[in-house]
């Protein structure tokens, strides 16, 4: 099943691939190469991973894109949620350590002369509409009726 998801993702058009993962196919290939390098540089092999490297990256990108819980991703990928967590953390660490996929810092953005715009949204508080505690229709009335 996991290999099927990975193969289906690779067969999508570039636009649909970006819609699904949030990155272009070229960026996905670069990220996958970083993860392959990490796997090749391991000193001790240990237990083999539950997913191939490409599927690990796809799982990580789905987590970032959809913000689903590890439990839900585990159900979708037929894995335990702890395995999903370990997979995502390992992929994140490898991508961060490569330095190729980090966002520019605050100083870089400030020095570049980037003009930032802000959108202000007026959000006003509205009290919840629920029965008063003293009314007979609330929970207090129900408790006294059952005694």
Give keywords:
0% strand, mainly alpha, extended, 59% helix, 147 residues
Task: Provide a quick synopsis of the model.
The protein has helices at 2-10, 14-21, 25-40, 53-66, 70-77, 81-98, 106-111, 139-146. By secondary structure, the protein is an all-alpha fold.
Describe this structure in words.
It is a single chain. With 147 residues, the chain is an all-alpha fold. 59% of the residues lie in helices and 0% in strands. Helix 5 packs across helix 6.
Give a topology summary.
Blueprint: H1 2-10, H2 14-21, H3 25-40, H4 53-66, H5 70-77, H6 81-98, H7 106-111, H8 139-146
Helix pairs in contact: 3-6, 4-6, 5-6
Helix count equals: 8
State Rg: 24 Å
Low-pLDDT residue spans: none
Count of distinct strands: 0
Q: What percent of residues are in strands?
A: under 5%
